[in-house]
Amino acid sequence: MITNCSAGVSAFTCNAYLVTGERTVLVDAGANYDVVSAVREHVADLDAVVLTHTHPDHVENVPALREAFGVETWGFDPEREHVDHAIADGASVTLGDHAYDALHTPGHKDDHLVFLSRAAGVGFVGDLVFAGGSFGRTDLEEGDAGALVESIERLDAALDGAGIGTLHAGHGPEIDDPRDGVAASLRAARFAR
């Protein structure tokens, strides 16, 4: 089961997805609200926090999660604050009951990751793409419009034949038609470059 622990929060934060099952994981920690209480509404404990990237709105709640659950964090670059363990490009990560393939997708931020599971039919895309054909901003530090387009192209190729029915984005609603949604984001990102 996947639950957005940030649903209904009016503070500046990202979506923080609780994935329950064999390995209960929070995908992104969020910021500026009591994520610990939100997680505890659903589970008593966490096995890990997995980060799509380390922008403040995705990681500021990490210290509170560490203190409450004694949990460690996983992300692309363990040299970054809030990342304890590395997830390499192409690695397999268990979220809930399914294995997800990690794709390194820079452009919005150098350490950005996307997670896709053919078995679950689900993906977590952080701030790479959003519903409505939008895409991650590139005007922040480490932003690179050319790299973002290449990362969206990589996601688009990975979706081909993967049977992914839903993409959970870092902000806003989920993308229920991933092939069309990512294609629209790719067109918009190419145009904006």
From TrEMBL:
One Gene Ontology term of the molecular function aspect: metal ion binding
Cofactor(s) listed: Zn(2+)
InterPro entries for the chain: MBL_Glyoxalase_II (IPR051453), Metallo-B-lactamas (IPR001279), RibonucZ/Hydroxyglut_hydro (IPR036866)
Domain Metallo-beta-lactamase: 13-171
Keywords: Hydrolase, Metal-binding, Zinc
Annotated protein name in UniProt: Flavoprotein
Organism: Halarchaeum rubridurum
